[in-house]
Structures are given as C-alpha cells and as structure tokens.
Amino acid sequence: MDAQAHRPRIVIIGGGFGGLAAIGELKGTDAAITLIDKRNHHLFQPLLYQVATTSLGPSEIAWPIRQLVHKRPEVTSLMGKVVGIDLAATTVRLESGAEIPFDYLILATGAQHAYFGHDEWEPFAPGLKTLEDATAMRGKLLVAFERAELETDPEARRALLTFVIIGAGPTGVELAGAIIELARLTLKRDFRTIHPEDARVVLIEAGPRVLTNFKPEMSAYAERALRELGVEVELNSAVTAVHADGVNYGGTTLKSETIIWAAGVLASPAAKWLGAEADRAGRVKVNADLSVPGHPKIFALGDTVTATTVGGKPVPGIGDAAKQGGRHAARVIKARLSGDTTDMPFHYRHLGDIATIGRSRALIDFGWLRLTGWVGWWVWGLAHIYFLIGLKNRIFIALNWLWIYLTGYRSARLITQDSPTSASPSVDPATAGTADRRPPDSKVARLRA
Ligand SMILES: Cc1cc2nc3c(=O)[nH]c(=O)nc-3n(C[C@H](O)[C@H](O)[C@H](O)COP(=O)(O)OP(=O)(O)OC[C@H]3O[C@@H](n4cnc5c(N)ncnc54)[C@H](O)[C@@H]3O)c2cc1C
Questions:
Q1: Residue 27, Cβ neighbours under 10 Å: how many?
Q2: How far is the C-alpha of 153 from the C-alpha of 138, rounded, in Å?
Q3: Strands 305-306 vs 9-13: parallel, antiparallel or unpaired
C-alpha cells in the first residue's frame, strides 16, 4: 500500500497501446499508479513506416508520456528500463538499481524483432520498431540514392538502387508501396545522374501469399496492386542468408545495400522476469483473465503475451488487442480492489484488418464490410486519424496525406545521421544528367517497360 495515503499501488510497465489503455480505464480509481517506460514517449507504431519513408516526421507519431498523464495527479511517470521483477518482495527492478514496489502489476512491454535464430542478420537487415529504427531507415534509404548519384560502377549503383524487404505482412507491404512511390514519384526529378524511378523494390516472402491475415482474394488484390506500382513480389521464397552484399533466396543472390527486416517478432523478456511459461516467441501464457498463472495480482497483455479468444482463436498481436487487454486488466484490478472475486475472462473482439499500399490504395476487412482501392484508402486514412492523439497532429497528418495524395511530394527527407556517402567521386557535373548512365540491367529494363 501507498504508505502515506494507504492507497493500493498499481505499477504498469510499458506506455504503449496496452499500458495507456489500462491507465485510461483506471481513471477514478483510488490508487497510486506508477507508469514505467524505458522511453519518454508513446509511439503510434502503425505509422512508423511513414517516418521511415519520409511522409511524416517523428514528432507527428509520438507523444511525451508525461504530457499524456499530466492531468492525472495519481499517476507517476518514470522513465527507466525494467530489468527484473522480485516476486517475493513484490518490486520491479530498474536498470538504475531502483526498486519500485507494487500491490498490482500490469506488464505491457510489447515485442521486438526476431531473426529466427539468425541474429547475425540484424546489422544488415534492421527492422522497424522504434523511432530510432525509423529515422535510421529513412537515412539509409535517402543515402542510398545519394551514393548512387556519385557511383560510377554500374553494378555498385544497381546494388544501391535495389531495396529489399523481407516479409510480406502489413509492415513489409506498406514499406514496399511507400518506397517505390518515394523513388517513382517523390525523387524522380531530384537527381541528375541516376533515375530514381528505376530503383528496384523487391518484397520477399517465404509463404505463398502477401498479407496472410487477410482473406486470399484480398491478398491477391494486394499482390496485384504492389506489382502495378512496380514492386517485385517474390513468394514462396525463404531467405537463407543476409550479408553485407545482399540476400540469398531461392538459390540466387540479390545484391542490395538496403535490406529491411519485416518478418518476425519476439516478445519482451516479461516471461523471464516472471519465471512464467512462454510460447516459442517468448510470449507469456496468461490465464483467461490475463493474470499470470500463480500470480493473481500480476497481469500481462498485448504483444508480450499469448492469449486465446473465448472461441479458442489466438488473440492477434495488434494495437487494438493490446488496448482491449489493457482495459480488461484494469477492470479486473478495479473489481478486486472493490472486493469482487468473480471470474472475469477476457473477451477479445476483433474489429477488422486494414493495410495500405502506397498513397492511394488500401485493404479494409471489417468482416461485414470489405473495401479495396481508393475508397479503402480513405477509410484507412480516417481510421488512423481517429486513433491518433491530439487535434494538431490529426489536422497536420490529414493535410499532409492530402498533399501527398495530390502531388506525390513527401517533405520529411532530411538525412540527420552521419551516413557514409563514399562512392567514386568521378561524376562530371558538366555531363551529369545528360547521358544515360543507368546500369544495363534486364530487370531495370523490365521495370521501365
Ligand atoms: C511497424 C509496425 C507497424 C504496425 N502496424 C500496425 C497496424 O497497422 N495496426 C495494428 O493494429 N497494429 C500494428 N502494429 C502492432 C502494434 O503496434 C502492436 O501490436 C502494439 O503496439 C502492441 O501494444 P503493446 O502495448 O503490447 O506494446 P507496445 O505498444 O510495443 O508498447 C510497449 C512499451 O513497453 C516499453 N518497454 C519495453 N520493454 C521495456 C522495459 N524493459 N522497461 C520499460 N519499458 C519497456 C516500450 O518502450 C513501449 O513503450 C504494428 C507494429 C509495428 C512494429
């Protein structure tokens, strides 16, 4: 209990979708709430790819956690990395050495990239999970074009203008559509030696179709739309190696300087902290009410757990599932605090799936309503604007998308990291842009045709 006020102490680890939903649901509860996150901001991950591909800036999709809870005096926000939980002492241990006591605990620590046992691939194929990942990816994409402009060796230039994405789930598909449009619409008039619109975007997927969370006919639409934009979609192609020169798949090596990992996730170490049973992806196996087996006052939810719906289907690792989980855990805690001990199983309600392809097409599957094309894109846009935080961001992003929709122009194209731009500096500005120095590549020719 809170020593001064004799209030129960609720500690929430993770200020993502699940953690913030729990905070919202706990409003009005007579408790001392502590929210711990290793970052100082809440991140709207569904739009990370737009930061990585120059449509939006970082501050448009992230908000300081302190600001989000500043009207809630009962909530204390701490920036700190959790490294363990002392179950006997009921404290959360931070990297700094601090110990935070709790009566009730909610774990909503999300997930990270997983390389299926090939962690050595990570330096060559970074994933997209944080703002740092997104800005680094943006820098890498833009630097590839800059280096290609300076490069005189056709093969090296071709590798610079080949962008490979591994994994054709929503993130891979959205990145592929955005990168090809960046090259073909946004950058096409900006260079004098290279032709950015000749860039190759190759989407490699081990399974037989893209977007397996959608119905097969919707996947087929997505594949068609990607190919129409110019993306090369390689299905049934498991990647067997990722290295400094490119990727190996299907018995071939594709040379590329920019490889992006969008293929797998691994849960946060929450299961290890708790000594709890986990599945192969490290996700905590929770009870029906989202409590951790053997620990009725500790709850886990969102991407860091594996849970099933009442019908026995797995709860998906998506934002809305984390939010519903956060609200549910908070309701159970409120019930327990009021002396109610009845069973409260979590009933997940799947509202639907949405994904976008480029600036004017999307797929919407709400079960009762299925949409594709530009109508789908408008619904996708409205849904995302609705879920964003703050009027200013909503207005800004809506106007920004409208601008990109009308002009193809993406403004967040600054390279802010130190990035290697080394290439043979032998381009003669007098002749730059006058000769066709494009590599004699059959696939490039195919794209141009
Ligand atoms: C690129 C991308 C695109 C996506 N697109 C969609 C989409 O279109 N629609 C959709 O529904 N879902 C999408 N998702 C999935 C969705 O974002 C997640 O399912 C959701 O964020 C999970 O919520 P969560 O609360 O479990 O974890 P998160 O939102 O990831 O929050 C976890 C929080 O815990 C903090 N944390 C982690 N470890 C520690 C620690 N040791 N100590 C302290 N704090 C810690 C993190 O900093 C983070 O703030 C996408 C995810 C990604 C990565």
A1: 12
A2: 24
A3: unpaired
Residue nearest to atom 35 of ligand 1 (CA): 14
CA 3 / ligand 1 centre spacing (Å)? 33
Share of the chain above pLDDT 70, in %: 92
Cβ–Cβ < 8 Å for 260, 125: yes
Identity of the amino acid at 120: E
412-430 pLDDT, tens per residue?
A: 787 876 554 444 434 444 4
**Does any ligand 1 atom lie closer than 6 A to the CB of residue 319?**
yes
With vertex at residue 268, the alpha carbon angle to CA 65 and CA 383, rounded to the nearest 5 degrees, is 55
The token pair at 108 is 């909503």
Known catalytic membership, residue 174: yes
Task: State how far the alpha carbon of 359 is from the alpha carbons of 53, 187, 353, 432, in Å.
Answer: 12, 15, 18, 31
Which residue out of 113, 306, 315, 318 has the highest number of ligand 1 atoms within 8 Å of its CB and is therefore the one to mutate?
318
Q: Show the tokens assigned to 252.
A: 């071939």
**What pLDDT is stored for residue 418 in this prediction?**
59
Q: Which residues of the chain are modeled with pLDDT < 50?
A: 420-449
Angle, nearest 10°, between helix axes 373-387 and 391-407?
A: 160
∠ CA 306-308-314 to the nearest 5 degrees? Answer: 75
Q: For the range 396-404, what are the long-range contacts, defined as Cβ-Cβ under 8 Å and sequence gap of 24 or more?
A: 396/60, 397/47, 397/56, 397/60, 400/55, 400/56, 400/60, 401/55, 401/359, 404/55, 404/359
AA identity, residue 243: H
